[in-house]
Amino acid sequence: MSGYLSAQLSILCLNIIIAYAIFLPAASGQLNLGAGGFAIIGGYLGGWLNSDFDGLGLAMQLSIPLAALATAAIAFLLSFPILRTRGVYMVLATFAFAEVVAGIVLNLEVVGGAAGFPVDGHADLSVLAPICVMVVVSCFLLMSTRFGLAMRSVHDDENVASLFGVNVHWVRVAAFTLGGLLGGLYGALYGHQYNYIEVQNWNVMFSIYVLLYVLLGGTQSPFGPLLGALFFTVVPELLRSFGAAVGSELIADGRFAIFGALIVLMMAFRPEGIVTRTMLERLMGRGAREKGAT
Amino acid sequence: MTALLSLQSISKRFGGLTVIDDVSFNIERGTRSALIGPNGAGKTTLFNLISGVYPIDHGSIVLDGRDFADIPAHRRGGYGLSRSFQNIRLMPHLSTVENIMLGQHARSSTIGMLAPLGLWRNRWVREAEQLLADAGLSTFPGQVVADLPYGIQKRIEVVRALAARPKLLLLDEPAAGLNPAETDELLKLLESISAQGVTLLIVEHDMHFVSRLCQQVVVLNFGRLLFQGTPAAARRDRAVLDAYLGSDHAA
Ligand SMILES: Nc1ncnc2c1ncn2[C@@H]1O[C@H](COP(=O)(O)OP(=O)(O)O)[C@@H](O)[C@H]1O
Ligand SMILES: [Mg+2]
Q1: Tens-place pLDDT, residues A166-195
Q2: What is the rounded CA–CA span in Å between residue B174 and residue B86?
Q3: Hey, which of B44, B49, B170, B244 would you mutate to test ligand 1's pocket, going by the most ligand atoms within 8 Å of its Cβ?
Q4: Rounded to an integer, what distance in angstroms lies between the CA atom of residue B27 and that of residue B11?
Q5: What value of ipTM does the predicted structure carry?
Q6: Interface residue B71 vs chain A (CB under 8 A)
Q7: Does A278 contact B74 at a Cβ distance shorter than 8 Å?
Q8: From the list B73, B117, B164, which residue is nearest A146 (CB)?
């Protein structure tokens, strides 16, 4: 496999994992702008646990899962204050969380502060791809359980969900915490893939992009984040190589403007995201009818 | 034998407005009762108090010997209570079968939360499909409910509430907005639910519907209990007639 392709696939794997980190809370009605905060915690913890020189010198097989679990534990504790907020206030609370995390890590000398932090162990595509597949399969399974049904019910109408026996508070806590787990996993994998991390990798633009591509993919089905991540990873690259191929600097350099316009168009035409339940049902319904006809 | 549902002088105020005022009545096991009263009488609020949407200010609610005072809304289903809503409150992004499976939620164990529902036809899915079939709604299992007609959604509400296998089923205006054919379907459905031993308490305006289905009528007016008795007696009762016709006479 060419170096370019494997680099692009690694980015895709990472983007898919962070997409599910934001999808799980979003599927239960939470707008989480804290992707960067979880990524920083997972990335720095993973790097520090792995580092021989500054940290504990654990093997990658330990540093990555431990970083993810620790991020989940932090997300669990934070969920109690953060889940007191709703809607746009939750967006602000999670944003503030990410900013606080960035501020703290920037001033932590033990992990290099603003200079960034080198990560020793290297996780290449052969590590990222199977983990990514596992994350996707687990999320599909999770969404198909009664717990997944509870999450989607809380998204639609939490009062009614509660009257049918759903413990709304715990469902929200669990979704937020699982999101933290995947966010931490993403951060640790990212650190081990690029072997160097800095807080600037995960600024507010990063969090906005992730939330945007999850919403754009659609939060009603676990296909949504897959498509959203694919779209956000592939389209700018396609525009870039297309621009280079036709020799148009306008396309190559202006690709983010074109990309932005595409996003606005999709938001206008598919406000509930690319993948909706109605769409899936049409696709599958048509399939069933064709089967019936033969 | 004690009553299935026992309300003891319950009251509820919203701000300065007393919406439920010292209401007491019993519902016997296996019976079909109607809760009627003019708009704004407090019928929906009474359902909200029984199901735990709001706490009561005063009094007690006892279902099957269990005092509901300290039981949060999400645990009341486990004690045999289920309800439908006056304005359709189905989950718009869930399919019909998934909405019914939400109705089953209170019957599932904690471990059961993590058993996949959608991958193969397990007992929950089969049961949900059977409930829909029994209600004559089997043509729509995979359909997202937001795309279904009003009359169908209205009946799915009833089936979802039934999926909780309640002892007491509270139905808030299940026949509102249905055409005569749909109303007949609903009556048949409610009769078959009652035949299974489920106790029914139904808010309904149409006295003809009430007379056909219910043995007992409870009348609320301005949050107060006005009358409790048979439908025939209610039609003759002076206070009930005044509550319903008084404003018409004045107008
Ligand atoms: N959450 C609430 N806050 C304030 N007032 C309410 C609330 N719910 C109901 N009410 C008031 O209580 C009264 C009874 O309403 P409701 O129970 O819906 O009547 P009904 O179902 O008999 O038509 C109305 O005056 C209504 O405005
Ligand atoms: Mg009402």
Answers
A1: 999 999 999 999 999 999 999 999 999 999
A2: 7
A3: B44
A4: 18
A5: 0.92
A6: no
A7: no
A8: B117
Q: Starting at the edge strand that comes first in sequence, how are the strands of the sheet with B168-172 ordered? A: B81-83, B168-172, B199-203, B32-36, B216-221, B224-229
Domain shared by B183 and B126, yes or no: no
| Same-domain status, B181 and B70 | yes
Contacts of B101 in chain A (CB under 8 A): 146, 149
What's the domain range around B13?
1-80+166-251
Which bin fits A165, alpha (ψ -120 to 50), beta or left (φ > 0)?
A: left
Contact between residue B104 and residue B78 where contact means Cβ atoms under 8 Å apart? no
Count of pairs with CB atoms under 8 A, one residue in A, one in B: 98
Give the global pTM: 0.92
Q: Which of B125, B144, B145, B160 to mutate to test the interface with A (most CBs of A within 10 A)?
A: B144
The number of the ligand nearest the C-alpha atom of B19 reads 1
Q: Residue B33 belongs to what H/E stretch?
A: strand B32-36
Q: Are residues B108 and B217 in the same domain?
A: no
Residue B249 has pLDDT above 60, yes or no: no
User: Does the Cβ of B223 fall within 6 Å of ligand 1?
Assistant: no
Distance CA B92, CA A157 (A): 9
> How buried is B169 (Cβ within 10 angstroms: 0-12 exposed, 13-18 middle, 19+ buried)?
buried
Contact B178, B154 (CB under 8 A): yes
Decide if B122 touches A, using CB distance below 8 A: no
Name the residue of chain A whose CA is nearest to B117's CA.
Answer: A145
What phi and psi, each to the nearest 5 degrees, are found at residue A67? -60, -40
Residue A184's domain spans which residues? 3-293
Name residue, tokens 């990212």.
A190
